[in-house]
Amino acid sequence: LQGLNIATRALSTRSTQPIYEGVQMRTTDEGLRLTCSDGSISIVTVIPAEIAEEGAVVLPGRLLHEVVRKMPDGELFVQMNATMAVTLKCMGSRTTISGQSADHYPELPLVSAEESFILPQVMLRNMIQQTNFAISSDESRMVLTGSLLELQRGEVRVVALDGFRLG
Hints:
Blueprint: H1 2-7, E1 22-27, E2 32-37, E3 42-47, E4 56-60, H2 61-70, E5 77-80, E6 85-90, E7 93-98, H3 121-131, E8 147-152, E9 155-160
């Protein structure tokens, strides 16, 4: 449930590609990797799990989140058959959800080590809080509905603009 709470924040509500309304579940060496994307924002989280057999599937995100949220506390057993039907079992509760092939889920772009950086969470949170007031909520000017994060010569800058205010 904690993993789904994190990943499903990137789910698309109305997408031209229905696959973006799903959660890609893929087994890895670290556990179960949950991936959600709306095409511009992607969230990947890995939750610890005992993997009996490797596999991947895309399940309807909102439905999966609601089903897992309403299950009793305890170990959750996930099993997929050849037709991509996934059965979730927890204590006395059992639900089956139809999934689709994970091969249809778009690949996330790879970020190289040269393009990555590390920031303290507190610093980034403070920068966002100080500029958040100037982010536009007007969807007709999409370029103003976000913030610019700029890195130059060891300096980090966050800029937000809504057409009237600058932060």
